[in-house]
Write a structure and sequence with these properties.
Blueprint (H helix, E strand, L loop, with lengths): L3 E7 L3 H10 L6 E7 L6 H7 L3 E5 L9 H7 L4 E4 L16
Parallel strand pairs: 1-2, 1-4, 2-3
Length: 97
């Protein structure tokens, strides 16, 4: 199976990212997370603990301007693009801390 980079763009969605990473374990070889604006929720720590690379970009109030940069950071030829609130399977409803 070819190597896959999981690429996520988000803004202050640490809890959702934690859930995404837990549920997508084993589905990717490389993790790239691009944060829209300053990280005030500790997302960088979550990404680095998962062995991923974290990038903070100027706040644009949307993901779209960040995708070309994010894809350029991917180490693998195959890219899995997910939003922080996407799951491969939902075992329980999301309840923020």
């Amino acid at each position: 199976m070819p190597a896959v980079s999981l690429v996520v763009c988000l803004h202050q969605q640490r809890d959702l990212l934690e859930r995404l990473l837990k549920n997508s374990e084993g589905c990717y070889d490389d993790l790239v997370v691009v944060h829209d604006g300053p990280d005030e929720s500790g997302t960088r720590k979550v990404v680095e603990a998962a062995g991923g690379r974290f990038f903070e970009r100027p706040h644009a109030s949307q993901q779209e301007p960040h995708w070309p940069f994010a894809w350029g950071q991917a180490a693998c030829d195959w890219i899995l693009k997910l939003d922080a609130d996407e799951l491969k399977a939902l075992s329980e409803p999301y309840r923020p801390h």
